[in-house]
Each structure stands twice: as C-alpha cells, then as structure tokens.
Amino acid sequence: MNLKLAKTILSIAVSNAKEMERVCSIALVNENGWLVALYRMDGAPIPTAEIARDKAWTAAVFRRPSSEVSAYGDPRAQGFGLNAQNWNDRLTIIPGGIPIWDGDLMIGAIGCCGATPEEDVFLCQKIIEEIRSGQDNLNFKEVG
Amino acid sequence: MKELTLELALKMIEAAERWARDIAESPCSIAVVDKAGAVIAVHRMDGAGMATTDIAIEKAWTAVAFKMPTLMGSRWLDPRNIGKLLGDHAMGMIGRGKGRLCFIPGGIPVTDEENEVIGAIGCSGVPSGVGDISDTSVSQAGVTALYE
User: Fold this and answer.
1) Taking CB atoms and an 8 Å limit, are B43 and A49 in contact across chains?
2) Dist. CA B122–CA B110, nearest whole Å
3) What is the ipTM of this complex?
4) N or C: which end of chain A has fewer CB within 10 A?
C-alpha cells in the first residue's frame, strides 16, 4: 500500500459515496494496520472517522472482513477469549472493514463508516471491485 | 471561506506534501482538522513513520483547541522559558486534553476572513526543526496554498 494507491482508492470511494448520496468516512490502512490515508466527507459525523479507521485496522490485522471477526466471540468457537485481549482500543466487529488482496498478497484494508452497516459493506465491495477492474493502470506491483 | 471542506483540506495537504517532498525532502504525515478538531483528511507519505499520522492529527487538534500554532505552546513547555512566559506552571500543560494535547511544533490553525479559527493543519515526520526543513514549514505550505 502506498499513498498514490491510497489516494486513487479514496477518490473512487468518495465519488461512489456521492453517487449513493451518503456522507461517510473512509480509511485506508497498510498490511500491518497502520493508517495511510483517511478522508471524512463534508457533513459526515465526527466519530465516523475513528470508526472507519478501526474497521480498516480490524480487517487488516485479522485478514478478513471486520464483520467476520465476531465469529471469534462465540464461546463454542476455537480461540474464544477475543474480548479479554488488549486490542489497542481498535478492535471492532461492526461490518464495513474489508481487506484488499492482490492475488495471495494482502496489501491493506479499507474501512467505511457513515451509512448503515449493509451500505458500508456494499460501498467497500464496490470500491474493491472497481479497483480490480481498473487494475491495469493502478500497478499493484509497485506496492511490493 | 467559512469552513474547511474535504476539497480544501486536500488542496492544503497536496501543497504540504509537495513541500515535504521537494524542499524538506523527508516523508511525513499531514492531517487537516475542522473547527471542532475533528479530522477531515490524513495522508501518510510513503516512507513516513507509522506513528506520525496520530501525531499529525494531535498537532492539528491542539492548534485548533488553543487557536494558535503548536510552536507557541512548545515555547511554554521549554524549560528554558519557565518563569519568563507564564510564571512557572506551564509544565502543567503536559498530559492535558485527555492525552491529546501535543505541543510539538508543526500544527497551525487556519482562519477565515474574520480571523475566526475554522480548522488546522498538522504535520509530523520531518526530523529537523530548523528553517525550511521543519514540520512547521510543511504545514505553513499547506496554509499558504489555501489563501492562494
């Protein structure tokens, strides 16, 4: 994940959100969960910025959509005890954080917050689909 | 210009990034917050330290909260100035604002035509603090771009 790629993704995200007539915050983190870029659209509520970042962080470090992380909270599941860990105050199981894969390599994660959880997930997926379709001019390789 | 929009924030960040890349020659993070101190946009340039995003946000937040550049606040905390500027209680600033207060030079408030603070820009990641090669000058480049 580099800033150029993050900016491209975020501009796609903002135009998509405008199309859906939603104001939201969108966060991009790298493969280790560190913030690379974050936009809060005009009119989006203040906490959405931090929640979007938390969602992206969760998706990146667990390498799965933030909504699926809640599976670890099931007492019957292996690995129960999620809530007892110190998660740097960032762990969230609100849907809306999705990792971005380039083949087998996870290059980062995106988090959206501002609309309903379903819309957040839809927006994330739409953005990822769009960057996949335009992959030729994005040059994922230079992310390395 | 009554309030900072995402568009204006990005304009500032782009200009600050250019300064950081071409003149300061060190990758850094740049954040813009609105008049409530809430973050509007953050960029971390390639190669900048991972923690610099948070520090840039905190610097911008502090600049809004005190309506002055964090450079001024850092003067209060400079031990050499104790007893000269604010009596000897300036050290009490440390740790205020639920730990968000950050008096490291690099945050600059943005004002409108009536001199009301409408937001701030913060930069973190430039190792030197001298002249053109400092967090403050990177932020200043962003502020200047806003008024062009």
Assistant:
1) no
2) 11
3) 0.84
4) C
Q: Is the distance from CB of B30 to CB of B122 less than 8 angstroms?
A: yes
Domain CATH for A46: 3.30.450.150
**In order of start, what are the domains of chain B with their CATH numbers?**
6-124 (3.30.450.150)
Distance from CA of A129 to the nearest CA of B (A): 23
User: Which whole-number Å values give the CA distances from B133 to A81, B12, B54, B103, B138, in the listed order?
Assistant: 48, 18, 20, 18, 8
User: Largest Cα–Cα distance in chain A?
Assistant: 46
**Closest CA relative to residue B41, chosen from A14, A70, A66, A109:** A14
Task: Give tens-digit pLDDT for A51-88.
Answer: 999 999 999 998 989 888 877 777 787 766 676 666 77
Residue type, A125: Q
Number of domains in chain A: 1
Does B44 contact A46 at a Cβ distance shorter than 8 Å? no
What is d(CA B126, CA B137) in angstroms, rounded to the nearest whole number? 10
